[in-house]
Amino acid sequence: MEQAVIDTNFPGLNLLKKGKVRDVYDLGDSLLMVATDRISAFDVIMPEPVPGKGRVLNQFSMFWFEIMESIIDNHLISGDVNTYPESCRQYSEILKGRSMLVQKTKPLPIECVVRGYISGSGWNSYKKDKTVCGLPLPQGLKESDRLPEPIFTPSTKEEAGLHDINIDFEEAVKRVGKRLAEKVRDISLAVYKKGVELAAQKGIIIADTKFEFGLMGDKLILIDEVLTPDSSRFWPLDEYKPGGPQKSYDKQYLRDYLVSIKWNKKPPAPSIPENVIINTRNKYIEALNLLTGRSYDI
Questions:
Q1: How far, in Å, CA of 117 to CA of 204, rounded?
Q2: Which of 26, 153, 158, 199 could staple 133 via S-S, CB 3.0–4.6 A?
Q3: What is the rounded CA–CA span in Å between residue 29 and residue 62?
């Protein structure tokens, strides 16, 4: 079991982008996407990483990319370090299990959020005016209630340290065009519904999630991460009880801790106690093993 925090800086490789959680390197004809052990909450990177978390996230995405190929192609070329370009070979041991070689795309400037349950910022919006991202919802919903049908609620895509902003569908159309907005909406809902169905069979509710898409020429493909505990709310099905917050397999545990200490959700983030880091890590691993039916040595 991986206990130490892994250094994911790779001298000699061309760092293209350092995200909240992932680092992307330009290898010329392709990109190397590395899932680090960094963790963010409320769009702010925490000072302490979660050992092994990058490998967990990477395995989630590899699992889902394969399953969703019947709906949409993705940017994955390979997750096998033995097939990576020669420039990566000296870092093989570090990259193993936490990286993907992917195709280059032009990412869309919106996050494609799908909600099947009313929680988080969606619940806060609903309490104000019974809508989420301009979509009217039924009266009388309780926190964590399942929605009659999943809804597409896009957001902006902000840099690290800035909060993504919920937008309505009309604003998404302004940003990417009507045809593309309708396409990512329909595909996002289809991928979410398929994921929900499979996860339920494994005892997990996927309450909501967010997807990213990119263009290869005119072709739309799924990119970045898919249905991970970083991008989704995962709840234990056997403990689901609407009317309040739910127990989770995701970073809601970390968010709840940050709320409890009354952090203002602005940088710099506070130091995180070791027990919160360990419990967050364990929740991620438990969800991965439950979902895939495998026992990962993270």
A1: 13
A2: 153
A3: 21
Here the tokens at position 247 are 């127990």
CA 65 – CA 75 distance, rounded (Å): 9
Residues 27 and 139 in one domain: no
Gyration radius (Cα) of the chain, Å: 19
Query: Which residues form the domain of 159?
Result: 108-261
In a domain, 53, yes or no: yes
pLDDT in tens, 181-233: 999 999 999 999 999 999 999 999 999 999 999 999 999 999 999 999 999 99
Nearest alpha-carbon partner for 100 in 225, 11, 203, 215: 225
What tokens were used for 123? 């619940």
Residue 185 lies in a domain: yes
My answer on whether 249 and 216 are in the same domain is: yes
% of the chain beyond a pLDDT of 90: 87
Q: What is the pLDDT of residues 17-60, one digit of tens each?
A: 998 899 999 999 999 999 999 999 988 999 999 999 999 999 99
Query: Residue written as tokens 């005119």?
Result: 218
Quote the tokens at residue 98.
Answer: 């936490």
